[in-house]
Design brief:
By secondary structure, this protein is mainly alpha-helical. It has one domain (about 10-210, about 225-415): Up-down Bundle (Growth Hormone, Chain: A), CATH 1.20.1250.20. The chain is built from 18 helices and no strands. The chain has helices spanning about 10-25, 25-35, 35-45, 45-80, 85-100, 110-135, 135-140, 145-170, 185-190, 190-210, 220-235, 240-275, 275-305, 305-325, 330-360, 365-375, 380-395, 395-415. Helix 14 packs antiparallel against helix 18 (about 395-415). The longest helix is centred in the N-terminal third of the chain and has 33 residues, at about 45-80. The radius of gyration is 20 Å and the shape is globular. About 55% of the residues are buried.
């Protein structure tokens, strides 16, 4: 089945990119810089226990995403439309995130925090399957890199903007607005409903102005049967998609490293360098600036040189700067190496999306982006679990974070032989 081409004006493209602005608030504020640190420092019985519990919850969410995304993508390809799926999982993330408001600073709130974290992560990641699959229908191949890069760049700007609001409007406000009580950490907990509202409001333009592929008219039951059959056929005939398979295996490793870095970056800054939540947010703001600049700049590099070369350069930068962050001792050096590291975070992700858009057969795009999501989550339990285990055994967050570099190096080595059709 060949997917229909959709006409997309400037407003539709901007609205598509704006969804990146919307969904970036969740990983930036909730899973990386603010709520992760709040959970380990104020909710869990101890920072070490909190780190382990947070890692286990992220691993569970990753397993759910890995199991569901390929099948859902294959079913959506048969039905044609992607927006209904995108709306459903966006709503799941918004509701789960808003519920984090009730996570008070006491161990009794741990189950609610972890449940909301799992549901929110599942929602935002499964929504991305259908969001990413829209990319090849919106522009020609020669512009995949730029549109993907612009989306990621705008996403980092969105994460930055939400962090600024969280920092100056809530966490550091004195007195906190709306009668929020610092004694109950309400000024920190309020960042969760802020993210939920942010996501809901800024996701809306995509649903209003960005065109969707037409509905095929296939009944839901038939779409499910054909979608699952298509997925099984793809798995059985993996040799026909050898380069895609090799790329996805490489991505399993390097995205696992990046996901683990996002999940534990704020925890590492707090535990090893003694940074409080306000300092972590300031670092997050600065890093989002460099990451956004990198995503924008490398978007042009992607279209001119190719997405594979962009990923290789990005991974090399991440490995070199990441290694430095494991040995430095002072906050000054943490800032010095951490900010330029951000330049390579965005391009590694953006160019991966662009490369998948180049490699995916037109009639299997959402299915392939489901496998793309699978490659980012199939071992999501491994990265956080290994990091947590090494941290506990060694008694050092540095040794735990070192496992991230191993994942990046393995991913780079597997990616190098991937052949991309330059046409």
């Amino acid at each position: 089945m060949k997917m229909a081409t959709v006409r997309t004006g400037r407003g539709g493209l901007v609205s598509w990119c704006l969804y990146d602005w919307a969904n970036s608030a969740f990983p930036t504020v909730i899973t990386t810089f603010v709520f992760a640190a709040y959970f380990t420092q104020a909710v869990a019985p101890s920072p070490e226990t909190g780190t382990a519990l947070w890692g286990e919850a992220m691993a569970l969410a990753g397993l759910i995403i890995a199991l569901a995304s390929p099948a859902l993508g294959a079913i959506a390809d048969q039905g044609g439309r992607r927006k209904p799926w995108l709306a459903a999982f966006t709503a799941l993330c918004v509701v789960a995130t808003a519920s984090l408001w009730w996570v008070s600073p006491q161990p009794g709130a741990v189950p609610l925090a972890l449940l909301a974290l799992v549901l929110g992560t599942v929602g935002v990641e499964l929504a991305s399957v259908f969001y990413n699959a829209m990319l090849p229908d919106l522009v020609t191949k020669g512009r995949y890199g730029r549109l993907s890069g612009w989306g990621w760049g705008i996403g980092y700007a969105g994460g930055l903007a939400c962090l600024v609001v969280a920092l100056f409007g809530l966490v550091q406000a004195d007195p906190p607005p709306f009668g929020l009580r610092k004694a109950d950490a309400e000024h920190v907990r309020a960042t969760a409903p802020l993210v939920a509202l942010w996501f809901a409001v800024f996701a809306l333009p995509l649903f209003l102005f960005t065109p969707d592929t037409p509905c095929t008219g296939m009944p839901a039951g038939q779409a499910v049967r054909r979608g699952l059959a298509s997925l099984m056929a793809t798995v059985r005939n993996v040799r026909r998609h050898r380069q895609i398979a090799r790329f996805l295996v490489a991505r399993i490793f390097y995205i696992d490293g990046l996901n683990t870095l996002f999940a534990f970056g704020g925890i590492y800054a707090a535990g090893t360098f003694g940074m409080d939540i306000a300092e972590i947010i300031r670092f997050g703001i600065a890093m989002n600036v460099t990451a956004g600049l990198g995503a924008f700049a490398f978007g042009w590099f992607d279209d001119r040189v190719g997405p594979k070369a962009t990923i290789v350069v990005s991974l090399l930068g991440l490995i070199l700067l990441g290694g430095g962050l494991l040995v430095v001792e002072t906050k000054a050096w943490f800032w010095t190496l951490g900010l330029p590291l951000g330049l390579f975070v965005g391009p590694a992700q953006s160019a991966s999306r662009s490369l998948m858009a180049h490699l995916a057969p037109e009639e299997l795009r959402t299915e392939m982006f489901g496998l793309f999501a699978l490659s980012g989550k199939i071992t999501a339990f491994a990265g956080p679990a290994i990091l947590g285990w090494v941290t506990v055994v060694s008694g050092s967050q540095r040794w735990g974070m070192a496992t991230i570099l191993v994942s990046l190096v393995i991913g780079l080595a597997i990616l190098l032989p991937v052949s991309v059709d330059k046409r």
